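[[Sequence with tokens]]
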Amino acid sequence: MKHDVVVIGGGPTGLAAACAAGREGAGVLIIERDIELGGILNQCIHNGFGLHYFKEELTGPEYAERFIRRVEDARIKVKLDTMVLEITRDRRIKCVNGRDGYQEIEAGAIVLCMGCRERTRGAIALPGTRPAGVLTAGTAQRYVNLEGYMVGKRVIILGSGDIGLIMARRLTLEGAKVLACVEVMPYSGGLKRNIAQCLDDYGIPLYLSHAIIDIVGERRVEKVVVSKVDEIRRPIPGTEIEFACDTVLLSIGLIPENELTRAAFIEMDRRTGGPMVYENMETSIRGIFAAGNAVHVHDLVDFVTLEGDRAGRAAALRAGGGGGPDGPVLAVRNGDRVTYTIPQRVRPGGINGAVDLFFRVSNEYRDMEIRVMSGEDILCRFGRAFLAPGEMEKISVPRRLLEKTVSGFLTICAAPRREKTA
């Protein structure tokens, strides 16, 4: 069995990639391990989706439904409830389901859209006993929104990622008492709008530079102990606060889902936890592309969609026999105050007009400028009134400036506007 383009993952990224490849005339197959398309959007019943892409506010299921209809209208083939076991360097997909059994599928190009997963308690070695009532925010979201189960009555949320913030509001609306949101860093990990709409609007306190130092309970959580931490995240004696609660939700970060990627020996980026990609989202293996949260964790589904669209179009071109752009390859590096960049490699010959570069900063900053450097030369600058780690940044660099680069790499950094340059 052979298809022009095989998309692994039927969430928002995979749906966008499949639709884009289909518009280019490719024969497309989506492989999804769940029993329905839509991915995480199916449990995100709150609004706020689609403001950039559709220019209107939608819920998660509404956003997913629009792309599912496009997939159906384009007669794109779909395999649901199917687990991909392995992908190979020669673009063979080994998968299994209860209907067809084990299969091997050949692809002209593959797009990896597996999304991401949540960090769990074991990832941060959270101290205390191991009673019921400790679960990730995403798991709680599924229980409440899809399964119809209430996860607790008195809740503490550890971490200030967007899913945790949204669940603080959701549980409050369902009648629970959310006692506090506890964040070990001196800044929030979520979007500012979610801090305002999900915590401030409901009077839920946010404890920055605090951590849970003990969970107490036998069969069920009974209380947690929270302490202020110093600059290297050590608890400060005498600052302990006890909260009587029955539930702890963990919103402590997301990890790109890349077991298949690593097993195929695709080059990875330790900064993002995802694969290294070029400007068209192609990985280090020709004909295998990646997009969305499998590459790096996004804030907005709209940006995930645009990335999937770019990967799908490029995959269709590759499957149709198109080659990659010729000419030099520029490495994109992170400089001062920047933690990572996407893409990590840019080929000016493959860019029409300008290339979009995405990145995150390492702390909260005000009155800054983003600089794109070639060696010691500043190619361009972008002013920013405010930067925060919880909000991904995007800049567009014209091809004409990239062609002036002689150092072989670009560096993206952030600097105060008042800082003088040579």
Remarks:
- The radius of gyration is 22 Å.
- The CA atoms of residues 36 and 80 lie 6 Å apart.
- The first strand starts at residue 2 and ends at 8.
- The mean pLDDT is 95.
